[in-house]
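Schema walk-through. Below, the input block comes first and the output block second. Nothing else is stored per chain. Lengths vary across the set, and this one has 180 residues.
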Amino acid sequence: MMMRATLVSLMGIALAFSSPLDNDSMPKFVKSARPAQTRRRLDECVNVVVSGSPLPELHGTYVQKGSCNNGWPRWECDKWGGCSETRYIWYQFDSNWHIGPNSCSDSAEIYTLDLDADLRSFSGTWNEYTTTGYWQPNSAISVTCAGDGMTDSSIRTAVAAWLSNSASAEATYGHISTWE
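--- output ---
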């Protein structure tokens, strides 16, 4: 009977064994194992656009600038990005995305739990701190990646879009100052 080598990665441990092609001797846990999902790196999200919060100082295009002590990137929005006050987005060790004035801290004006640390794919609800002192879910808050790097072709498209409607182009591609 023809044999083949099979390599399975389970919880970071590689197991190697031989089994017949019909997989009859393969352990059940190996047969039911699913391949690990691939994740995009956090720093692939070059710009982040925030809207929908009742706090207008949070609205704008956040540009990736530096990183927190945990090594994960942070994004900054200032008056050039459309925010009336400087604000930041960062990911904490507590598995939450934070948005607020104190970069890389435990405090935030809005936050959301994201165990995958994947802002690009996140589709849950953000929570905001209300004036009454409580955290409240707000499904109107939108936080999306935009302007993930430019090619010659995409920058021409972005410039054409910006010339016809700068606000719409910046919502799609990020602030024009970040186009490279």
